[in-house]
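User: Could you go from structure to sequence for me? I need the amino acid at each position, not a summary. Structure tokens:
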């Protein structure tokens, strides 16, 4: 199921969506966590990223996300795994493999990414964008699309979307909106 919202996104709203998609009572995993702005307050969360940055949780594990099953967390099972502003930093092929790997260790996988291509470059840095994604790239996933999510200083606007896959239950975008107390 795909729902579209035609308005600018909101940081606080994103944190509420993250919380509403968490499976209670099970540990969560934030892959590519950065400073873990939306997940830091979640209980029993494991943080993994390719390098430590300012504001990164002190308990973060430094690991290349493309090798997640070989990492210390690869032997664990998670309720919810988050990839927030992450999937666009690896190639499409690597992204599809990563999603498959995460589905094997998680009951739910949640991602947030720009809608389509944004700032794609050949820069080898892990911080450069390597791929663009749309909800159509994720068959069987629920998605919530904002064609006008990011508003830039130069006045430009670019879309983004949330997508989630669940092993057993798959809340609809509308039920997530209701639980997060936001307007779809």
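Assistant: Here is the amino acid at each position, in order:
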């Amino acid at each position: 199921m795909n729902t579209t919202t035609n308005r600018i996104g909101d940081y606080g709203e994103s944190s509420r969506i993250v919380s509403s998609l968490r499976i209670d009572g099970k540990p969560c995993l934030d892959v590519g966590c950065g400073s873990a702005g939306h997940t830091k307050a979640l209980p029993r969360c494991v943080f993994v990223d390719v390098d430590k940055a300012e504001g990164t949780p002190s308990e973060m594990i430094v690991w290349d996300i493309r090798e997640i099953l070989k990492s210390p967390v690869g032997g664990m099972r998670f309720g919810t795994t988050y990839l927030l502003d992450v999937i666009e930093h690896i190639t499409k092929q690597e992204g599809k493999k990563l999603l498959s790997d995460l589905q094997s260790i998680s009951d739910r996988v949640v991602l947030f990414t720009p809608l389509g291509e944004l700032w794609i470059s050949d820069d080898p840095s892990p911080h450069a964008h390597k791929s663009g994604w749309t909800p159509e790239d994720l068959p069987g996933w629920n998605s919530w699309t904002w064609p006008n999510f990011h508003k830039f200083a130069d006045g430009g606007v670019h879309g983004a979307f949330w997508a989630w896959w669940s092993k057993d239950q798959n809340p609809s975008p509308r039920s997530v909106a209701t639980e997060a107390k936001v307007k779809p």
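One structural detail worth keeping in mind: The mean pLDDT is 90.
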